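Reviewers asked in the last cycle whether our approach scales beyond single polypeptides. To address this, we selected a multi-component target totalling 339 residues and predicted its structure end to end. The input consisted of the following lines:
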Amino acid sequence: MQVLRRTVLAAAFAAALAAPFAALAQDIKPRIIRFGYGLNEQSNQGRAVKLFAQEVEKRSGGKMRVRAVGAAALGPDVQMQQALIGGAQEMMVGSTATLVGISKEMALWDTPFLFNNAREADAVLDGPVGQKVMAKLDEKGLVGLVYWENGFRNLTNSKRAVNKLEDLDGIKLRVMQNNVYLDSFKTLGANAVPLPFSELFSALETKTVDGQENPYNTILSSKFYEVQKYLSITNHVYSPWIVLVSKKWWDQLSKDEQKVLRDAAVASRDFERRDTRDEAGRALAELKAKGMQINELPPAEAARMRDKLTRVNAGIGANIGMDLWQETQAELAKLREKK
Ligand code: TK8
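The resulting structure, written as structure tokens, was:
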């Protein structure tokens, strides 16, 4: 009895001593943020993640650290989104297009030919419409911080130059895992196949698919020029990336920690857009030098493509809600008027 009481007392005493130390240890231990992304380290995406990591470390005085994992080593976009929702991973950046299954409003950005230029994209994405679409993620277990530029997408394939609509006939074209893309390219006559980005290079190499579509930057950084002969400039859609946080984890952070992430994200966005536009300006010449055959779709053919896709556009409006659709169109009209 005596012995037992002494043991209990000793244990209680030890626990009382240990508690403050445990709290202290937790204060000192930096928060590790697992941040996943799909492209290589040597890409616009990789460079911007690196900058984000530096900003977080600097702004938190080393109390928060980003462990960046590229090349889809934590899984493709769709898998990482689920890991964020479940709280098994803290952050990621990826395409908005692969988020549509979780948050239907994201399909707005898949609208073919929605933006005429980067100025329009920045204004709408950073403005009330973009913020409203982003805020919808909250109820799905995700927090959106900022949009980065993936860019205007262009077609590559190993069969032939696409100079007119009919040239797409029967081309096996990889698209993102997204119904708007699937519909769009089926409507244009291609044999569209949804695949995660991480499987794309080998699918092109083994000729499982003939082609794909992505911005110049990605065609370059993912070395698609090694397995694709033709690049046809279509600029058929502007594709954003979005920086996401697990809401489960976000809700455990202090206001100060949340502010560090928000501010670092804005800094990374500004850097990323500049860097991406810089690189895009050089990329075409580089892709040519690597041996790609490049052609521009004649304006009359681009117009035929647009016409064909009007049906797809109507579907997007219905899906995301006509209010959001009309608000977007009104904002674009205002921007175009101002010029
Ligand atoms: C990278 C993807 C990529 C996208 C695609 O994870 O899948 O084609 O353009 O950037 O998000």
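The two ends are 87 Å apart (CA to CA). We regard this as preliminary and will revisit it once experimental data from Aim 1 are available.
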